[in-house]
Amino acid sequence: MIEIVSATRASEEEFWQQVPLGISLRRLAWDRRLVPRIAFANRLGLPEVYNARIAESPADALLVFIHDDVWIDDYFLADRVRNGLRSFDVLGVAGNRRRLPNQLSWAFPDETLTWDEPECLTGVLAHGPQPFGTPNVYGPVPAECELLDGVFLASGAERLRSRGVEFDRRFDFHCYDLDFCRTARQRGLTLGTWPICLTHHSLGHFRDVHFRALRQLYLEKWGS
Question: Which CATH superfamily is domain 2-222 in?
Fold first, then answer.
C-alpha cells in the first residue's frame, strides 16, 4: 500500500473536482495500490497532518507526502515510488547534493535567491497551471542528496518510526522540508532524487513574512 498524504484548504467535493492533486488521483484511481489520505478543509500545519500518518500507518505502508497543487503526470507512480525506495530511505523529485551554512531552501544557498551551482542540483520538475508542463531539469537523476524539495517526499512508515524521524510541528508550511531532511540525515537515513513526472503549480513564497519568521526559528534550532 502507498498512502498519498496531503492537506488541502478545499472541501472534499472541491478537492476531487478542482484541485490538481485530486484530479490527478481520480485519473489514477485504477491503481488500487494508491490510497489517498487527504485532510480536507485543513487548517493544521503540514507536519501535524504528515506526522499522524507516520504514527498510524501500517508498518509496511509507503508514504508519499505531496502538496495539493501538484499534478501527478506519471501513470506509474506506485512503481516509481517502490523502486526508488529500494535505493534510498527518503525519496524526492528535486534536491541538492550538498548543504551549505544558512541554506535558504534546497535550491537557494543564500538570501539572494540565486540558484546553487548546477553540479550540486539534481531532479526534474515541471511548473505551471496545467498538467504535463514543460520540465525544469535541475540535474541528473537519480542522485544522493542532502536536501530535497518538500513538494514531494516519500518514505516507509516503519523506516521513519524506527529512526524516530518526523516533521517538526513548529514549521507549519515553511522550512519543514529542510528540517525533515536534516533530521533524516542526522539519524542515518539516505536521501535521493528519483524520476517521477510531476507538474507543480506554485513557485514558492520566499518573501513571505511568515516564511521569514519560520526561517529564523529554523536557524535558531540548527545553528546554521
Answer: Spore Coat Polysaccharide Biosynthesis Protein SpsA; Chain A (3.90.550.10)
Is residue 148 within 8 A of residue 181, CB to CB? The reply is: yes
Average pLDDT over residues 126-135: 94
Tell me the one-letter amino acid at 192. Answer: G
- Region of poorest pLDDT, from 74-88, 113-127, 206-220: 206-220
Q: Looking at residue 206, what is its pLDDT?
A: 65
β-strands 121-127, 198-200 pairing: parallel
Integer Cα distance of 57 and 59 in angstroms:
6
- Provide CB contacts within 8 A for 23, sequence distance 6+: 16, 17, 71, 131
Residue with cell 507512480: 77
Enumerate residues 6+ apart whose C-beta is below 8 A from 13: none
C-alpha cell at 35: 490510497
Are the beta carbons of 172 and 68 closer than 8 angstroms? no
Quote the pLDDT of residue 56. 96
Kindly report the pTM of this predicted structure.
Answer: 0.95
Q: Where are the domains of the chain?
A: 2-222
Does the pLDDT value for residue 37 go beyond 70? yes
**Residue 128 falls in which region: left (phi positive, over 0), alpha (psi -120 to 50) or beta:** left
